[in-house]
Amino acid sequence: MEEGKADSAPASEKKGVEEEEEDFGYRLFPDRNKKPQSFLVRSLFTFHNKCQLMLRLTLETNPYARLLLEALKQSGCTVFNDRHFSCENCDGCVSGGFDAATSQIVLCQNNIRQQSHMNRVVTHELIHAFDHCRAHVDWFKNVKHLACSEIRAANLSGDCTLMNEIARFKFGLKGHHQTCVRDRAIRSILAVRKVSKETAEKAVDEVFDACFNDLEPFGRIPHSKADAKRAYRDFQNRDRYNANL
Q1: Residue 170 and residue 199: Cα distance in Å, rounded?
Q2: What is the chain's mean pLDDT, rounded?
Q3: Catalytic residue of the set 2, 88, 125, 150
Q4: CA-to-CA distance for 71 and 216, rounded, in angstroms?
Q5: Which of the chain's termini has less CB crowding within 10 Å, N or C?
Q6: What is one process in the GO biological process aspect for this record (predicted)?
Q7: Based on C-alpha coordinates, what's the Rg of the chain?
């Protein structure tokens, strides 16, 4: 989980009493339950305009995002900017989330202020979207499924790069990347599920090895934008090779 970020489905499929009894983190995304505002009204808010501009730049230029968009398309889940992304105001502690009920990525326009942050959030959530597309993920009831996708997102999105960890005043040598991935996956689960820390840790530990080593669609852990560019080129060449078989 990226600091100040929840990464699970923010929209509820439960109503009435069930909605009160079960908390899937929807409280963090209050705009999900509001009537959509008109384009004219939304255009008056600077945060919304800035969010849309940063999103467009990420989708057009960021190698992490571009690879994931191609992988989603090839998996039968083409992503459309105006359909699958929504800039909204969120709770002060989160930056984004994946709404499994609508297959939509929520970007917290009041909390994402820098392009680098937008790049990370979009990449993180696109990994969840990719997992949602290629597998039968039970986001709401199976904490192991959620843990696996959180491990993959933390591992492959750049959340745990050296520079990001230094910015968090966290330092380590051997095995620090794995430690970061584990810690952030646990934090993500705790942010959006009412489970104990022990339950979250147990779920992460039980699936960690398999999910940490699942590097699709990157084929490698992209520790930097340069790594992501190489992974993107490899992905494109892999597709060309397969097309000629």
Answers
A1: 25
A2: 83
A3: 125
A4: 9
A5: C
A6: mitochondrial proton-transporting ATP synthase complex assembly
A7: 17
